[in-house]
Amino acid sequence: MAAVQTTASIPTRGKIRDSAGDRIFLGITYILLSLILVAVLYPLIYIVSSSISSPQAVASGKVWLWPVDISFAGYKTVFSNDQILVGYGNSLFYTCCGTLISVILTVAIAYPLSKKTFFGRNVLMMFITFTFLFSGGLIPTYLVVKGLHLIDTRWALLLPNAIFVFQVIIARTFFKSSIPEELNDAAEIDGCSDIRFLLSVVIPLSKPILAVLTLVYAVAQWNAFFDALIYLKSQHLYPLQLTLRSILIQNFSGGNMDASEQVKRQELAYLMKYSLIVVASLPVLILYPFIQRYFVQGMLIGSIKG
Amino acid sequence: MKAVSVQPQTGTRERSTSKNYWKEAKKSLRKHWQLYLLVIPPVLFFILFKYLPMANAVLAFKNYQVTKGIWGSPWVGTKYFDMLFNNPQFWTLIKNTLFLSLYQLAATFPIPIILALLLNEVRSLRFKKAVQLITYAPFFISTVVMVSIIMIFLAPRLGLLNVILNAMGMESTNFLGDPTKFRSVYVWAEVWQTTGYSCVIYLAALAGVDPSLYEAAKVDGASRLQKIINVDIPGILPAAVIILILSVGNIMSLGFEKVYLLQNPLNLQSSEIISTYVYKIGLLNANYSFATAVGLFNSVINLILLVAVNAVSRRISENSLW
Fold first, then answer.
1. Among A2, A200, B59, B262, whose Cα sits 20 to 30 Å from the Cα of B83?
2. What SS3 class is residue B171?
3. Quick one: which H or E segment has residue A262?
4. Domain boundary residue among A10, A40, A74?
5. CA–CA dist B260, B191 (Å, integer)
6. CA atoms within 13 A on the CB side of B162
7. pLDDT of res. B9
8. A106 lies in the same domain as A55
9. A136 and A56 inside one domain
10. From CA A84, how far away is CA A280, in angstroms rounded?
């Protein structure tokens, strides 16, 4: 690894030379980190490589690191499966709508909570954070959703988990620390209402936090599985994750059907799992550079005591 | 650094008589009614989906009858709790939940700290960035996909791990069909997936350490290891304590999804935990009252744990959530 070579040049850089012990320590550090890097990276590369290899190569275990007999048979199978396409479409819908609802609701509560002029904000904050500590549990929540006649509707995936308490805290901290009080005072003197101030001043100034909220909610919604499992019954409403489960996990058989004409189909089914994993993770993968940046930012805002 | 600030700031509230308080409240409401309008939908959300379920939890003390609804069903006292405590499976559930959770804590708490300390030693910025970017990525893989990756790698016949074991002359193992291996599979997959994510908070804490401390250590001739022990570790301690409090408080609320998806009849003996049990008896067997009782028991234990750990931590380290 290139990383190990860089250690050699380091002692000359510091003003005080590293002792021999320190250099050994640094060497070990680089070796450990390289091992961690390989351990995380290898499974990811293996999956991607397998997904673009031929069904026979994958089924006979010929793929180790790089693709063998490059073929896109797995992807063809994935995209010719109606169930997957429906799930993909549904997941896109849930992610877009769910994220929109979540971000609006979060801002709607976090902004007033950040204002000194909002009376009872301490009580309201306690009201919210208590839900962080205690919950009614699965069945009582299920019965509420059922009572609202949301079972087996798209709303069941959009509403019951629309607000994350932690995101409210982060957004509130942001509004508190980056929207100057004087700005609001000035706007107030000019006769600007609170909602207008929020829409035309606060929102444009809060792009970083909006990005954080959008990405956190979007990733959560895209990956969500549990709510769909308990609230949905009709297959045409299933998000991708639920479809994935039935294809990737429930059909997973190490067993061996011996009819020879089935071997080919079986190989293809096995290969499809790799392609499906890649396709299912694609939206998150494409956005990953942004996601990484804003997730880290969100965590850092959250860690400042607000 | 406080990782989570869940407490309202009571200190800033002006001390005023209750009469003035209400007067001020009225004034604020008149002048800033739009702010109050704005919070109505979110507050409605919390009432409907968070507080109403808490009220519904009285179901644990009632014999639920669909036709009568929650409030009309007859009271049965602690019948379901007695049923729970006398159930021979109960202690297995508690044991499985606790063991899995503690094992997970023992691995996922220290490893991100170690990774952060190691990364902090690295002087090549590019290498540091690369390690961070790559180790952070698995966090965004969905549970369903994660479980299928686990299954692919551990499959008895073609799984890579068994191929390697065979190559080294060892027997293939059915990792997921063996109750003694279930916990390790779960925990180490978790380590693989979350270490990069969890280490971010510690890296931020390390970046915030006063540089003059490092200078001083250097002048005093401290070795790298001494510097880590005397400067780095004290620097991340507050963050670590908060993370630990949160993890201990969540000991009984292990994620349902991954355990449920990894379960099969062969490993059920060690993989059945409280949340999966509640799902099965509650939603699959429609035994609402009993499942609510089990869930309520779990929530209460969690709350007690969180409050207790927070109190202990405040005593000994002055770090606490509230």
1. B262
2. coil
3. helix A260-303
4. A74
5. 18
6. 18
7. 45
8. no
9. no
10. 9
**Domain boundaries, position A253:** 76-303
Q: Is residue B305, in this structure, part of any structural domain at all?
A: yes
Alpha carbons A196 and B146: distance in angstroms, whole number? 45
* Encoded amino acid at A149, one letter: H
d(CA B139, CA B89): 33
Q: Do A140 and B56 touch (CB under 8 A)?
A: yes
Residue B56 lies in a domain: no
Q: What secondary structure letter does DSSP report for B165?
A: H
Domain shared by A63 and A123, yes or no: no
Query: Do A140 and B59 lie within an 8 Å CB cutoff?
Result: yes
* Cross-chain CB nearest to A129 (options B6, B59, B119): B6
Are residues A96 and A64 both part of a single domain?
Answer: no
Mean pLDDT, each 10-residue run in order, chain B (322 residues): 43 57 80 89 94 90 83 84 87 90 92 92 88 89 90 82 82 83 91 90 86 86 84 88 81 82 88 88 87 89 85 76 67
Probe site for chain B from A18, A139, A250 (most B CB atoms < 10 A): A139
User: Residue B166: which domain range?
Assistant: 79-317
For residue B231, the distance in angstroms to the closest alpha carbon of chain A comes to 16
- At A260 the pLDDT is 58
pLDDT score for B322: 66
Q: For residue B17, is it within any domain?
A: no
pLDDT tens for each residue of A4-19:
444 444 444 445 566 7
Interface check B285 vs A, CB under 8 A: no
Is B70 part of any domain? no
Here the CATH number for the domain that contains residue B204 is 1.10.3720.10
Query: Could B5 and A127 be called an inter-chain contact, meaning their C-beta atoms sit closer than 8 Å?
Result: no
Co-location of A38 and A150 in the same domain: no
B 193-212: CB under 8 A from A: 195-197, 200-201, 204
The pLDDT, as a whole number, for residue B62 is 85
- Structural domain count of chain B: 1
- For an interface test with A, the pick among B16, B46, B165 (most A C-beta atoms closer than 10 Å) comes out as B46
* Residue A144 distance to chain B (closest CA, Å): 7
Look at B158 and A140 and tell me if their CB atoms are within 8 Å.
Answer: no
- Kindly report the pTM of this predicted structure: 0.83
- For chain A, list residues with pLDDT below 70: 1-18, 251-262, 302-306
Q: What is the DSSP letter of A144?
A: H
- Interacting residues of B142 by C-beta distance below 8 A, sequence separation 6+: A222, A223, A225, A241, A244, A280, A281
Domain identity same for A108 and A136: yes
Of B13, B295, B302, the CB nearest to A138: B295
CATH for A85: 1.10.3720.10
